[in-house]
């Protein structure tokens, strides 16, 4: 995951929140600290008791001298609610009484007489800078920030929150091998950029045939217009996309359509708005006594502040986050961003960073074991890109690994053949024993769009021209998709790839807002690509031969083919990726009639298939007709 540009975009504001959190209030006398054990049933954050009229509020903050609770229940006084410290010095807690269970209360922690921070475990925050841009249609009746009472991000607690009643409790997740994942950024999917408007597009997605949606990060991140890889609060859905109930409803409705929902989880790093960063910070980076963060990042791809996943505090926090989303939102899987960064082994370049790391493996086995103890069928997907021997160990433990074929597949779609071999899509080349552990894709949020490069840099010969030719470039996309979905194992599509999205990834800045092109669907050429995707996805899902362990292929030249065998049936996918006609010479394994899922049947007199294919031409042949 190469988000170096992303770091440059964010660095100018990386510490605004930390600086604002250093109180501008007058220093007041520090209350005398009492020592007392945590009450039974207390946990990090807020636990309501007495039918919601009381709350036990706690904060994990070792080595602090004093902590007070401030908020609307005590008119933000820094002295009236001093928190007790546990005997081991790690936790601070207090019981607050006389609460109205139906009221939302804004609150913070006032630490060591000079720092105001929000609750790391809260499920909702108020932001004095960004909330004003959230519309009432997206978040009705959003609580007003307590301006003039405090500064910085504040937490919100409420005993009797609106509850969502789940309707689709019997949802069965698709088998890993049959997953077709649609990676989606709520911000750039619909003009309204919220869960409700995205939900309105489910007919489009079910028509495409996908059976999983992977949401780019939806927990609170800095600002509003973000990819979401700058997280700050891990239990709070980002309000810019909608309410907690709206997100739960979105997931539930997806389940009702047979669609799993996978959440992009960012636990490699956090940003300056995070109270966990602010609690142990020297003005430029985390301090050495931070329970969670490294002073300096251990690897070269880090953005924000680097979590130390060998710290017990970080392990506990991470597991708490995972459990929360699994249980409160019925999420079906996590795609862990920059999972290779979960290391304490220092590296200065990617060659070092990707080397086999036993400590990193131990961390991931621990997390995977914890997740599977809660839900054995849960998807654990890693954006890892480490040495193949390390990825094999993780795959053997049941984890799924992202597999980026963008460069080679794009060379093929552009008609440049020297580096067009995308055989890396086959799990056996990774040393894996099961195809279900390798999530192959030609596009992701982090890669240039295939069709942008087709139109900008495509090859040509005579009248066959890819560059600048929309119709031809889209047919090249169709050709590549026929092969992508024929490679055994789970697959992923980046949003609008099925319509040949051709806006440069760096338009408006790499992570900036991109044009939302629903008008593409009305273009006959683009709609034809959508229909082709739907056809290939249907074939993959309905015919187990596309998960066959018996495969052969040649993907290096202009003529490429994949041959899959299962029982008495064989499928051969053949296509010409050159820009001139080429003759295919392929051993089909048997003579006789072969049915073409995208064209006319042929009758071979022998095992040998010898046909001249026009540039961009492809076929999906089988001995037995596919469903």
From TrEMBL:
Cite the SUPFAM superfamilies for this sequence.
Answer: (Trans)glycosidases, E set domains
User: Which keywords belong to this entry?
Assistant: Hydrolase, Signal
Q: Which residues form the signal peptide?
A: 1-19
GO terms for molecular function, please? Answer: hydrolase activity
Task: Tell me the InterPro entries matching this sequence.
Answer: Branching_enzy (IPR037439), GH (IPR017853), GH13_cat_dom (IPR006047), Glyco_hydro_13_N (IPR004193), Ig-like_fold (IPR013783), Ig_E-set (IPR014756)
Instruction: State the source organism's domain of life.
Output: Bacteria
**What region holds the Glycosyl hydrolase family 13 catalytic domain?**
183-540
Looking up Pfam families in the UniProt record yields: Alpha-amylase, CBM_48
UniProt lists the family membership as follows:
Belongs to the glycosyl hydrolase 13 family.
In Swiss-Prot or TrEMBL terms, this protein is called Alpha-amylase family glycosyl hydrolase
Please name the source species.
Pedobacter vanadiisoli
Organism lineage reads as: Bacteria, Pseudomonadati, Bacteroidota, Sphingobacteriia, Sphingobacteriales
């Amino acid at each position: 995951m190469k988000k170096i540009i992303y770091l440059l975009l964010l660095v100018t504001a990386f510490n605004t929140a930390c600086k604002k959190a250093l109180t501008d209030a007058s220093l007041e006398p520090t209350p005398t600290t009492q020592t007392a054990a945590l009450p039974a049933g207390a946990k990090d954050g807020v636990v309501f008791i007495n039918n919601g009229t009381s709350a036990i509020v706690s904060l994990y903050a070792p080595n602090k001298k004093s902590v007070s609770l401030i908020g609307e229940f005590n008119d933000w006084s820094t002295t009236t609610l001093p928190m007790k410290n546990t005997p081991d010095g790690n936790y601070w807690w207090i019981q607050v009484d006389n609460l109205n269970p139906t009221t939302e209360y804004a609150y913070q922690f006032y630490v060591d007489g000079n720092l105001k921070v929000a609750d790391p475990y809260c499920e909702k925050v108020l932001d004095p800078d960004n909330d004003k841009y959230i519309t009432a249609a997206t978040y009705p009746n959003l609580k007003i920030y307590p301006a003039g009472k405090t500064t910085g991000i504040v937490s919100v607690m409420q005993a009797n929150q609106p509850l969502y009643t789940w309707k689709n409790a019997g949802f069965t997740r698709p088998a890993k091998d049959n997953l077709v994942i649609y990676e989606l950024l709520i911000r750039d999917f619909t003009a309204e950029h919220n869960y409700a408007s995205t939900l309105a597009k489910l007919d489009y997605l079910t028509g495409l045939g996908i059976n999983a949606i992977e949401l780019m990060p939806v927990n609170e991140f800095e600002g509003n217009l973000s990819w979401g890889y700058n997280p700050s609060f891990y239990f709070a859905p980002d309000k810019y996309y909608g309410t907690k109930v709206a997100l739960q409803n979105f997931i539930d409705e997806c389940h009702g359509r047979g669609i799993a929902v996978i959440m992009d989880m960012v636990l490699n790093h956090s940003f300056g708005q995070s109270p966990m960063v602010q609690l142990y910070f020297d003005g430029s980076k985390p301090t050495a006594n931070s329970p969670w963060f490294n002073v300096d990042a251990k690897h070269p791809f880090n953005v924000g502040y680097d979590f130390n996943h060998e710290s017990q505090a970080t392990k506990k926090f991470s597991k708490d986050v995972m459990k929360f989303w699994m249980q409160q939102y019925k999420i079906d899987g996590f795609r862990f961003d920059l999972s290779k960064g979960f290391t304490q082994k220092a590296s200065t370049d990617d060659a070092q960073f990707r080397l086999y790391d036993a400590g990193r493996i131990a961390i991931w086995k621990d997390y995977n074991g914890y997740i599977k103890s809660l839900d054995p069928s849960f998807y654990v997907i890693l954006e890892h890109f480490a040495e193949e021997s390390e990825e094999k160990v993780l795959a053997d433990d049941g984890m799924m690994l992202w597999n980026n074929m963008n460069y080679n597949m794009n060379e093929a779609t552009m008609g440049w053949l020297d580096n067009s071999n995308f055989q890396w899509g086959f799990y056996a080349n990774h040393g894996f024993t099961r195809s279900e552990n390798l999530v192959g894709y030609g596009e992701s949020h982090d890669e240039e769009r295939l069709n942008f490069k087709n139109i900008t840099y495509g090859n040509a010969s005579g009248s066959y021209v890819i560059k600048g030719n929309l119709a031809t470039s889209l047919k090249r996309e169709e050709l590549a998709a026929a092969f992508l979905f024929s490679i055994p194992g789970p697959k992923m599509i980046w949003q609008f790839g099925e319509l040949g999205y051709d806006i440069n990834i760096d338009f408006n800045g790499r992570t900036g807002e991109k044009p939302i092109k629903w008008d593409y669907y009305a273009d006959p050429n683009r709609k034809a690509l959508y229909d082709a995707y739907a056809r290939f996805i249907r074939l993959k899902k309905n015919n187990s031969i596309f998960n066959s362990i018996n495969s052969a292929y040649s993907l290096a030249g202009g003529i490429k083919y994949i041959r899959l065998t299962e029982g008495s049936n064989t499928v051969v996918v053949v296509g010409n990726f050159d820009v001139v006609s080429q003759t295919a010479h392929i051993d089909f394994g048997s003579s006789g009639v072969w049915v073409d899922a995208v064209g006319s049947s042929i009758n071979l007199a022998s095992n040998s298939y010898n046909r001249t294919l026009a540039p961009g031409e492809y076929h999906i042949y089988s001995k037995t007709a596919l469903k």
